[in-house]
Amino acid sequence: MWAAVEIVRAAWGRFEAPVALEGLGVGLAVSVTATALNGAWAALLVRAGRQHRSPALVADARHLWADVVTTVGVLAGIGLAAATGWWVLDPLLAIAVAVNVVAVGVRLLRESVAGLMDEAVPPDEMDAIHEAIRTTMGGALEVHALRARHAGRHTFVEFHLVVPGTSTVAESHALCDRLEAAVHATVPESSVTIHVEPEHKGKGHGGVVALGSDVPHTFT
Questions:
Q1: Do 105 and 6 fall within a single domain?
Q2: Co-location of 152 and 124 in the same domain
Q3: Which domain holds residue 55?
Q4: CATH assignment at residue 193
């Protein structure tokens, strides 16, 4: 944020008294090269951050992207000013770049706070969890109270598994192992908690029942 303030302060002085810039060739070449390298590195960090669900890596990538946008804005301002002779364009674009730096900082702060708090999983990921459980539940009668949430890079999945009254402890344990493996295969960074219940604890819907809303929805 302080960088944005400094950019505006410097740009304001140039805005009141525009100055033509000289000897730009080497400086522009270095800036273009550094910007290209920063852009490539930022893209790699974003991919790694999303793959590993790491807010720190994504934040680093956003920071680099802010540098890239800042440099592109500066280069655009200098180029337009040199082409038109309107040197006032340089400080105007610098102020626009400062606004972008503030916007990126606010977004990074919001995403970092969200990464420290529990978040509901996206609908497509929840559907994948439903499908993994549905196709693996085998002889179980019902799954209900299914909930999933993100906390940082981890996903926590919890549900109740209703089994026939004739099921043994060993059979129920083996089924839980298969269900955990299926969920892990769908959501690698996950922690699965399964509450096994006897037949009379079922809700009478059958299949996989999500009870996260006022009206249960059954997936069969």
A1: yes
A2: yes
A3: 2-116
A4: 3.30.70.1350
Q: Give the pLDDT confidence of 14-40 residue by residue, as tens digits.
A: 666 666 555 556 666 777 788 888 888
Q: What is the C-alpha separation between 213 and 138, in angstroms, rounded? A: 26
Provide the 3-class DSSP secondary structure of residue 208: strand
Domain boundary among 71, 86, 116: 116
Say yes or no: 94 and 194 in one domain.
no
| Residue at 119: amino acid letter | E
189 contact partners, CB below 8 Å, separation of at least 6: 53, 153, 154, 155
Regarding whether 96 and 151 lie in a shared domain, the answer is: no
- When computed from its CA atoms, the radius of gyration of the chain, rounded to whole angstroms, is 27
Q: For residue 40, give the 3-state DSSP assignment.
A: helix
Q: What CA–CA distance (Å, rounded) separates 86 from 78?
A: 10
Q: Which tens digit of pLDDT belongs to each residue from 57-101? A: 777 777 777 778 777 777 777 777 777 777 677 677 777 777 877
Residues 53 and 33: their CA atoms lie apart, in Å, by: 30
In this model, does residue 213 exceed pLDDT 60?
Answer: no
When comparing pLDDT for 212 and 109, which is higher?
109
Alpha-carbon separation of residue 65 from 3, 28, 31, 69, 175 (angstroms): 15, 18, 14, 6, 47
